[in-house]
Each structure stands twice: as structure tokens, then as C-alpha cells.
């Protein structure tokens, strides 16, 4: 989080932000960062374990049906990013499916790491009403430990409609592997003579 702009002259603004942080299930230490240390909150994240993805997907489809919405085969409630799990939905997800995530308030200067395939949502501006302007810098990368999971995500993207923003292979996993192997072979060849000595 490289920038958080807090407008001046709105007395009730801090109360709204505090309520949002509390309603977001943030822990006491996080709340103290805002109330006592006076740090600037920019975004409220909820991150879930990758292993819970199917349960979350099933839950969102169930809620959509209850609200009379369609669940087209070529759409995905997680990748569509059309849902925000508010406090009541998070509570219901925990009660009905045993899924509980982590609430993280990202303050100015904080970095949030999201593991491969971990469903997540963010309320930017730290308040439901986007009271604070913020700028975040995001970087995606593929670690060797999560290549298998990245392939799985790429397969999920292929089943989305052709007009879906996530349909394309954004991760480029095959290209990453190709270039990693090419570089490794190049280094081995360059040092071949020193490797063959006893």
C-alpha cells in the first residue's frame, strides 16, 4: 500500500472506518493500530485457504439460487468477483461449511501476500463507502512450490466464457517453466567443464 489519502473535515469518518474494521472481524491488535497508533488503513482483505475454494464456490452458488440468480456453466462465482462476503455471509459460510478466513487490514506501507489459489476479497478504502483513496501495487508470480496449483487455476480459467476477463491464461505457467528450464540448461552448459572435473 503506497498511498492512503484521508480527506480532512469529516468528523464522523473515523467512526465509520472503525465500524467497518470491526465489522470486518479484525483482531484487537489491528484495531489498536488504527485507534492508538493512528496508522492509515487503506483496504480490508478477507483471505481464505485454497483448500476451501470448492466449499466457497458451492456456498456462493447456493446463495445466488436463494436470491433467484442464475448460475451459468461458463461463469464462476469466485472468478467473476461478483460477490462480497459481508459479515452475515461470512458467518453463514462458517456455520454451514466450516470455512473461516483471515481478516487483514492493509495499512499504508503494508504488504499483503496471497498464496496461490487462495480466494480473497478486498474492500478498498477500508470503509464500505470507499471513504479513503488508496493506491496499491500488485505483483503476481509463480513459485516452484505452487506450479501444480497454477496449472489447476489455468484449467479453471479455460472453462469460463470467452468474454470473461479471466478466460485468458494470465499466469503463463508453461512459459514460466520453459524459460526456467532454458536458463538452468544454459547455466549447466556454461559450467560444463568445471562440473566434469573430479
Automatic annotation (TrEMBL):
Record's subcellular location: Cytoplasm; Nucleus
Pfam families linked to this entry: JmjC
Ranges for domain JmjC: 1-158
Cofactor detail note: Binds 1 Fe(2+) ion per subunit.
GO MF annotations in UniProt: chromatin DNA binding; histone H3K9me/H3K9me2 demethylase activity; metal ion binding; methyltransferase activity; transcription coregulator activity
Lineage: superkingdom: Eukaryota
Cofactor: Fe(2+)
Catalytic activity: N(6),N(6)-dimethyl-L-lysyl(9)-[histone H3] + 2 2-oxoglutarate + 2 O2 = L-lysyl(9)-[histone H3] + 2 formaldehyde + 2 succinate + 2 CO2
Transmembrane regions listed in the UniProt entry: none
Function: Histone demethylase that specifically demethylates 'Lys-9' of histone H3, thereby playing a central role in histone code.
UniProt similarity note: Belongs to the JHDM2 histone demethylase family.
Name of protein: Lysine-specific demethylase
Species, as recorded: Scopus umbretta (Hammerkop)
Gene responsible for this protein: Kdm3a
Amino acid at each position: 500500500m503506497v498511498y492512503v489519502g484521508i480527506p480532512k473535515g469529516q468528523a464522523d469518518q473515523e467512526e465509520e472506518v472503525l465500524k467497518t474494521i470491526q465489522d470486518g472481524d479484525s483482531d484487537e491488535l489491528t484495531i489498536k493500530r488504527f485507534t492508538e497508533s493512528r496508522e492509515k488503513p487503506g483496504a480490508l482483505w478477507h483471505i481464505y485457504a485454497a483448500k476451501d475454494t470448492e466449499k466457497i464456490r458451492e456456498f456462493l452458488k447456493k446463495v445466488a439460487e436463494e436470491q433467484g440468480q442464475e448460475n451459468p456453466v461458463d461463469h464462476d462465482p469466485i472468478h467473476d468477483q461478483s460477490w462480497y462476503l459481508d459479515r452475515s455471509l461470512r458467518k453463514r459460510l462458517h456455520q454451514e461449511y466450516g470455512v473461516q478466513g483471515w481478516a487483514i487490514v492493509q495499512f499504508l506501507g503494508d504488504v499483503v501476500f496471497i498464496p496461490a489459489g487462495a480466494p480473497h476479497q478486498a474492500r478498498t478504502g477500508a470503509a464500505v463507502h470507499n471513504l479513503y483513496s488508496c493506491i496499491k501495487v500488485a505483483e503476481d508470480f509463480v513459485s516452484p512450490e505452487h506450479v501444480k496449483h497454477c496449472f489447476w487455476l489455468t484449467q479453471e480459467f479455460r472453462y469460463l466464457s470467452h468474454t470473461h476477463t479471466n478466460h485468458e491464461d494470465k499466469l503463463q505457467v508453461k512459459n514460466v517453466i520453459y524459460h526456467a528450464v532454458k536458463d538452468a540448461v544454459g547455466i549447466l552448459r556454461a559450467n560444463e567443464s568445471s562440473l566434469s572435473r573430479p
